[in-house]
Amino acid sequence: MKRWIIRAVGLVVAALAVGAGLWYTRSNGVERPAFRTVPVQRGDLLATISATGTVEPEEVVDVGAQVAGQINTFGKDKNGKPIDYGSVIEEGTVLAQIDDSLYAAEVAQATAQLEQAKAGVKLAEADLEQLKAKLDQAQRDWDRAQKLGPSEALAASSYDAYKSAYEIAKANVAVGEAAIVQAEGAVTQAEATLERARRNLGYCTIKSPVKGVIIDRRVNIGQTVVASLNAPSLFLIAKDLKRMQVWVSVNEADIGHIHPGQPVSFTVDAYPGEVFRGEVGKVRLNATMTQNVVTYTVEVLTDNSNGKLLPYLTANVQFELSRRQGVLQVPNAALRWFPKPNQVAPEFRAASSGPASRNGEGGGGGPQASAEPGSKNAESPGSGALGVLWAKQGDFVRPIQVCVGPSDGTMTEVSGDALKEGLEVVGGEQEKQAVNQATVNPFTPQLGRNRSPSRP
Fold it and tell me: What ranges in 149-224 are assigned the alpha helix state H?
């Protein structure tokens, strides 16, 4: 019994010794770094700015109603069908007819008032003729009275009466002439009232001011439209759907890179995989602010001769900033990765120790020192900064100074004397779990179809 206990204690001590040895080896052993490398590739690179916009007709006319009333009928398009969505119309085509009974009555009333005003002119002219005749009689009486003068043949009171009659008749003629002018003014006013009534009657017939396509019909037959301060919108007409625009909202940080004539490509969800082309036509200056984010509207002109693009489709737009062909490029992660100090080859540790290494310790950022455009360090077109790539050297890495060019968001153009196509550079580190997968604890049970069964 004692011998069995001694053997059991010995086995336990041996197992503890083996475990302690493994733990010491793992804790004090140097773990080899496992780097994830990517090759330097040569190809075409397109630097773009991404934004979202809406497809809009190039020119839209909003047709409204200037009078109130009920919609009685719709007009006919060029094919003889009632006006509806997508109807092709010519200039002057009748779009709708508003009930004109009230306005026709106003025209009749204004016509009667005009005739009455014209009759008033004739009455005033006749009155003036009578007044002129009375003036002529009074003038003759006054002339005779002046020849006789105040004497025994003509009493002084009669003399004064003739004089007063002449003055009154003269004044009455002036009043008659003014009455004619007043009557003629009433005629002019009645004519204006009649013209207004006729215009309102004409407004009951809604006609198209342009040639185009109906893209929106906002009323139905029997609906009453009320024109107040703002004319109610009845139809929306696009003059030419063969020319379209894309209204794109561009962030203020990117608007400095946008200019008229700049090539643009965009896609719409209605046609997956098909790329449409256009160019920047105008940058609107009326910026909008939403939650402290300032955006500008950019108008992109595009051809729509095939009629595929429909109004108000959502467009995913790419503004082309720089197109590079046959350049060396690496993933952006390779420029952002930076090694720990003990991962750098000993002969390069002194050169890599600095603010950049301290900032990037732990694999965070990269040592991209800025360089002025046009300097010796920025020889590649479009580059404005220096960067560092890291290539494997045994179990360590060594730095490669490069000049950074444009980026498409995934790949970045790089150039340098030490670069060549196919060169493997470090893009990151593999997960520790994947690195240590080959180290297996012998005391851990192994499950597998090919493992031989343990013997008792």
Answer: 156-203
